[in-house]
Write a structure and sequence with these properties.
By secondary structure, this protein is of the alpha/beta class. The protein has four helices and six strands; from the N terminus they run βαβαβαβαββ. It has one domain: 3-Layer(aba) Sandwich (Rossmann fold), CATH 3.40.50.1240. Strand 2, helix 2 and strand 3 form a beta-alpha-beta unit.
């Protein structure tokens, strides 16, 4: 059995004159990421390993989750191919994961994560919002055999707010 937690980066800011890659999180992105990570912690679904896109907004989101889940920052692996908006690079990355890893968390971008959730999960998602999380499970032993799995749960920030 394999599990993937896909986390879309938090809401980013457009107020700075930087390229897409370097856009930081807005305050709302920080708060929403914190809310979702605390909900994940309550569900007891912490990963064995964390991978992140190198983009500022994704890595910042990743660090918020790592802190709340008590995973040391030096255990975060930055993967260039996760700076992907269509999903092909992310899927190829997942298919090459070491088989001793069973619970993997990946921080990245849309439209890739909505698309992957719909290709490999069993629940349609119109759009995975910023700071949104999807847990997918697969009845496989080898990542290269990635196929349709089960959408275990989806955590959306607005669902956690009163």
């Amino acid at each position: 059995m394999k599990e993937i937690l896909l986390v879309r980066h938090g809401k980013s800011s457009w107020e700075f004159d930087v390229t897409d890659f370097y856009r930081p999180l807005k305050q709302r992105g920080i708060e929403d990421s914190s809310l979702v990570s605390k909900e994940l912690e309550m569900k007891g679904s912490a990963p064995n390993v964390i991978y992140s896109s190198p983009a500022t907004r994704a890595l910042s989101t990743c660090k918020i989750f790592a802190k709340i889940l008590e995973i040391p920052e030096n255990e975060i692996t930055i993967v260039e191919d996760l700076y992907d908006f269509e999903g092909r690079n992310v899927i190829n990355f997942i298919k090459t994961l070491p088989n001793e890893l069973n619970k993997v968390m990946i921080f990245g971008h849309n439209h890739a994560f909505t698309s992957i959730s719909n290709i490999f999960g069993d629940r349609f998602i119109d759009n995975l919002p910023t700071s949104g999380l999807v847990k997918l499970t697969f009845d496989i032993e080898d990542w290269k055999d990635l196929k349709k799995g089960t959408t275990e749960f989806i955590i959306i920030p607005k669902d956690l707010k009163e």
